[in-house]
Every structure is written in C-alpha cells, then in structure tokens.
Amino acid sequence: MISGSRLVAWMLRLAMLGLAVMSMSAGAYAEDTSAGQPEPVFRFSGRYADLVPVQQRLLDDWLARFSQLTGTSLPPPEEIYERVSISNRATFEAITHALINSTLTDESGASLGNALDLVLHMETVRGQMPGIGGDLQFRMYARLRPDALDILHRCREFKRGPDNVSYHKGYPQNFRQQGGVPSIQISVTADGHRADVDVDYRSAKFPAALFNGHLSSANSDVRAGDNAVRHNTRWSGLTDWWRNLFGLPFLGAPDEDTGETLIPKEPRAGRKKIPVAVKDFLSAWLVEQRPELSMAYYSNSAFPCYPPDEPGQPVDFGMVPFRILKAMAEAVRVIGKVPSLSGVVHAVRLDNPRLQLVKHDDRALFSLYRVPTALGEVIRCEDGLRMPPDHAIPTGNDQYGRFYASAFYLSTPTRQGAALYMLWEREDKNWKIVAFKAEPDEAPHMEVPDLRPAAAPVAVPEPVAGDPGMITAATDFFAAWFLDRDFDRGLRHIAPRTFPCLNYFLPAGTPPLDSSEAFAGFIRASMARVCETTGPVTRLEDALHAATLANPGVQLVRHDHMRAFTIFCIPDHYGDAFDCSQPFERDLRLETPPDGPTYGNCFGTAFSLKVAGAQPAVTYLVWRREDGAWKIIWYYLELP
C-alpha cells in the first residue's frame, strides 16, 4: 500500500527533476549605469539568483501552486532549478527574453506594456522532446490575463492570422508578431484563457515547406544553428550560456536531462500491441502500485480532459499531471495490495454499433474497441470539441486503426467504484491516452463516452453541398498538378494577384519576383519539384492528405476527394481580407454582420503532402471568382 510519505517523496522528486516543472530558466538582470541611465542588461548564467525578477516570480508562483496542491514543503528554488534540463532552461529563457523585449502599443502609440505582461501564470515549458512534432517542443504554455486577448487585438505589434487548425491543436487563435523572423507566435485557446507561445527563428519557404513545414523542430530551438544570433538581431542581450557549459557549440540533440527521471519518457509497453499497452497501464498502477509508470501513457493532449474543481472555475493545467498522479496514488492506497487485476477491474461494454470489438486475452478485465477516425477526432480532448450527435459525425467509409477505446470498472468488494473510459492513439510509435473520463456508479451507461471537457464548444456541422463550379475547378487544379503533371493547366487556376503572396515564402537569397513570367516560371519549377517527391500517383489520395478543420466559422464542403484535400466555405465578409498586396499584415478578426454570416462567394482548400517521416506545412488556398471563373487569389502556409 502506498504511504503518505512515499507520495510526498514522489512529489518532491517531480519538482526536483523538472519533469513537469519545465518552466525554469537561466538569466541575470543588472543595471548598467555607466551612461548615467540605468538600463536592463541580461546576463544569462544558469543560476536562479541571476533570474530577472519577473522570471523568478513566474517560477516561484509555479512552485507555490505545486506545494499547495501536494501539501509538501519544497527545497529552495535554487536547488530545484539546478536539476532542470538545459533545453527546458534555454527554451524558457529565450521565450521570456523575447516577450520582455517586445513592447506593445495601441494605434495611437500609447503603451500597453510588454508581451510578458499578458501572462498570468505559467503552466509548463517543453524543451527538447525527441520523436514528437515540432509544434509540441520548444514552447511555453501559460494562463493569460483576462484582458490579454483584447490587448493582442488592439496592439500594433501582433496581428491575428488565419486560425491554426492542423498544428497547435487546442489553440486556434493565431497571433503573429510583425516585422519578419525571428518572431513570436502566440496561439490562444478559443476562450482566450490559455496560450501556447514559441519563437520562430526561420520562415517557411516554398516549396520546401510542403515537404517539411519547419525543416525540423529546431526552428524554435534557440540552441540550434545560428538561432541565438538571429534572436539577438531582434532582441539583444541573450547569451548562449549553454555552449559554454561544455566549451562546444550545440551540434545536435543530446540527451541532456540531468539525473534520474521518475516518470519514464516512454511507456514501457507503449510500442507493443494495444491490448498489451492497456494491460501494462493497469498492472503498473494497481498491481505493482507504481502509478508513476502508468503516467507515461498519458499524452499531454489528454490533460484538457481534467474537470475543474468547481463548475465554471478555470483548471490550473500546469498542475493537472500532479492531480492525476495524486488521484491514482490515492486509489492504490484505498484498494491496497492485490496479487492481480482480477477482482479489481472489470470490463465495461460499449454499445455503439460503429465501434469494433477487439478480441484479446484479457476481455474480462477491460473491453477494447476500434474507434472510427472521424469519431476519435471529435472526442479527443485537445481539439476542444464536444462529441456531437452520431448523425453529425461523418458516416460511411469509416476508417479504423488510429483510435482505440478502453473501458473498465474499478472497484473492490467493500468500495463503490467508477467506470473509466480512455481513448488511445499512437504518438511517436507509442500508444498514449489522449482522452479520459471517470463516471461514478450512479451515472447512466454510455454508448460512447463524451470525453470532452464540459465547457467545450459544439462541433462543426455536417458538410454542405458547396458550389459545383468551385469544386470542379479545385479538383482540376489538383489533378493537373499531381496526376497529369500539366503545370500550365494548373497555372491557369491561379490569378495573377496571388503572386505577391509567394514572395513572402521565397527561399533565402532569392530576389523578389516582379513579373508574371517570373512567377509562372518559379511555380512551374516548384510544382515539378513537389511531384518528384510524391512520385507518380494515380489517385490524389496517394499524394495528398486533407486538413482537419475545427473552426466553427467555416463550413466543410462535400466532394469526391475529401480524404485528399479539404474544401470549405469562408464567410463572405472575410473575402476582402485576403489581399496579397499586404498578405500577412492585416488582422483577420472581422466583425460578423448584424444579420449573421453569408456564404457562397469565398472558398478555401487545405491539404498537406503525404511525406514519410516529416512534418509538412498545411497549404491553404483561397478561391474567388475572377472574370467568371473560380481562381486561387491567396496563399498561406500553416506551420508546426
């Protein structure tokens, strides 16, 4: 049985090792009075004592919340700080330094503070996490001030761009710092309460971004290449102290975490078959009484499932992993030592006919079902959608293999229990829990559990019919490019006013294209290069992957190639915002007309290339009528 002292020891080790306290940095702040005026000078050194006061406050606040949750007295922050990995410190350091040095002003020039003033609490920082997507590494997650969203809209230094829909999931509102790279990207949740913040040191280039959106996750790693030099070009004062630790430059992705880790970086059976992974999760937790091993099966994307303590109150997502671990440890304490899972867990049946029952050796302990991809995508936590009625989920031609659902009842002969539902998906070749929910005895039986947080918005409706002419034009564009390799025919679908958008994504050293002939030649060559990567294909679905949209303001359009590319209706009042003469300098937050949005005059397509082992950008093309024909009039890349 787990004792209270052992649980406290776990919590102390978590704080000491920085497994979730990935928020500590290294920096110094001094006053240089040599010129008669005190000016802030950052001298990053790797010590807590040298942190800027606002950095210390963010760290101290995190530790205070941790201590209150766990009921533990922590060692001094200086001691905890020394155990944090280099990549986490460098990430926090670079992001906070950029935020502090980014002043915000309104249209009149009046000060709105600096960008770090928008942060109320720090939740966590993710540094180097080998094997996962670039949009999940080298970033800080934070809870924002109540007025932060309003300030971002009012300030001149950040502009609202097209919503994130494929990357930065759960943070759809995209604010990009103006002035070119390096730049800060602040991605905000739909309710405006939380943010995912990173620094992009390099811009995406066409067509290379179609193969790998950020070239690598090192795009946001200040230690990689000359990123520190780029950083100081815009925000001076950051020193690359991490190089001096070894006297060598950062050359790759070393395993630089210090000390032993309590929660494994990978679940020990995560790469085995899904029934084995589920049983190992349960065995480590309940039989071995080592819930810290089971915690390795939780994906970070599952934590938004955690319910608030009080309805309507915000969840402190920085503390959610500790809350889960504490709850698991308490369950073990109540259940006591058991020789096996039998008698502790019992399978729960799910009745939805679209779920496919998986036969496995432990069917009495837990049930396991294949979940259609369309259903899995709307009940996983990070997407911020409530599971709609079954008829609103795309039906027919269900695809299986990406998601699985497990269901079991946890109890003892003397204790009332609860049903636990979990949605599983592979992340970096490991099976991970991406959504979960516990229901007490008195709760009604579920056909498919709604694993979303209670406050999640409603999912997008079923696809609409769209405009037949636009669907024909879009289909012919992709067929000309990927099937027939008739690049001249593909070019005829692109309006000349799109060309200036392309200059924004030209490779480094390429002079701006200033004529229709130059643009056409570059596009032809780029289309050919893309086809060399995809190789000959006989179906669009073999070369392209449709983007998943989660923006309630757009309408998904039904067509024959929905697995290859997405077509969506854009509200008409957005149409004039898509202007390549100022492609990414216009705020895309537009007021909805009093009578509500209308559709039919502006459409979009979204796709990414099917490229093995890479994280390609999602390409968005906006279509409008030009001289009676549907044409591409705007171009954009969404990056990891």
Task: Give the helices and strands, then pairings.
Layout: H1 4-17, E1 29-32, E2 39-42, H2 53-70, H3 77-81, H4 86-100, E3 103-105, E4 111-114, E5 119-126, E6 139-144, H5 148-154, E7 158-160, E8 173-177, E9 183-188, E10 194-200, H6 208-211, H7 227-234, H8 241-244, H9 274-287, H10 291-294, H11 320-335, E11 345-347, E12 356-357, E13 367-371, H12 373-379, E14 403-412, E15 415-427, E16 430-440, H13 468-483, H14 487-491, H15 499-503, H16 516-534, E17 544-546, E18 555-556, E19 566-569, E20 603-609, E21 618-626, E22 629-638
Antiparallel strand pairs: 1-2, 3-4, 5-6, 6-10, 7-8, 8-9, 9-10, 11-14, 12-13, 13-14, 14-15, 15-16, 17-20, 18-19, 19-20, 20-21, 21-22
Q: Could you explain the architecture of this structure?
A:
This protein has 640 residues and is an alpha+beta fold. The chain has three domains: 10-244, no CATH class; 274-440, Nuclear Transport Factor 2, Chain: A; 468-638, Nuclear Transport Factor 2, Chain: A. Helices cover 25% and strands 20% of the residues. The protein has 16 helices and 22 strands. It has helices spanning 4-17, 53-70, 77-81, 86-100, 148-154, 208-211, 227-234, 241-244, 274-287, 291-294, 320-335, 373-379, 468-483, 487-491, 499-503, 516-534, and strands at residues 29-32, 39-42, 103-105, 111-114, 119-126, 139-144, 158-160, 173-177, 183-188, 194-200, 345-347, 356-357, 367-371, 403-412, 415-427, 430-440, 544-546, 555-556, 566-569, 603-609, 618-626, 629-638. A six-stranded antiparallel β-sheet has the order 5-6-10-9-8-7. Strands 11, 12, 13, 14, 15 and 16 form a six-stranded antiparallel β-sheet that branches. A hairpin with a 2-residue loop joins strand 14 and strand 15. The longest helix has 19 residues, at 516-534. It is globular and about 75 Å long. The protein starts with a helix and ends with a strand. The model is unreliable at 16-42, 246-260, 384-394 and 442-460 (pLDDT under 50).
